[in-house]
Specification:
Layout (H helix, E strand, L loop, with lengths): L10 H16 L4 E5 L5 H6 L9 E6 L3 H8 L3 H7 L4 H9 L7 E3 L10 E2 L2 E2 L6 E2 L4
Parallel strand pairs: 1-2, 1-3
Antiparallel strand pairs: 3-6, 4-5
Protein name: C-terminal domain protein of CinA type S
Pfam families: CinA
């Protein structure tokens, strides 16, 4: 169980995080995150599980389009075409640090699911895992 956020995090999410970390530990994988709207929450959850947090290696919080481009190599045309909060951009963020161990990038829209933002349907939290090699 997570230590610092346990009262605010649903049990189903805590269970999923623990399963992910135990699976990574069992497979001798290291995890990394590339986050934007979640502001480092996923990285926090991954480092908060006793006995398995060593499976988490690093995290990137890149809120602006400029940061996504500079730190993770997300193409400007991809941002323009799909918007910063989209599954294609989340995937590009996850894949943007080649050589990074098993990166993940959650994509969450600040508007309610079903509403439209910049002419596109808003998405919910949608993890975009990538694996190096």
């Amino acid at each position: 169980m997570t230590e610092t956020l346990s009262s605010d995090i649903p049990d189903t999410l805590q269970d999923a995080i623990e399963r992910l970390l135990r699976t990574a530990c069992d497979a001798d994988l290291s995890l990394a995150t590339a986050e934007s709207c979640t502001g480092g929450l996923l990285a926090s959850l991954l480092t908060d599980v006793q006995g398995c947090s060593h499976a988490f290696e690093r995290g990137f919080v890149v809120y602006t389009e400029k940061a996504k481009q500079e730190m993770l190599g997300v193409a400007a045309d991809l941002l323009e075409k799909h918007g910063a909060v989209s599954e294609p951009v989340a995937r590009a963020m996850a894949e943007g640090r080649s050589g990074t161990p098993t990166p993940m990038s959650p994509c969450r829209s600040p508007v309610s699911p079903g509403r439209r933002r910049r002419g596109r349907r808003a998405s919910c939290i949608s993890p975009a895992p990538a694996r190096d090699g």
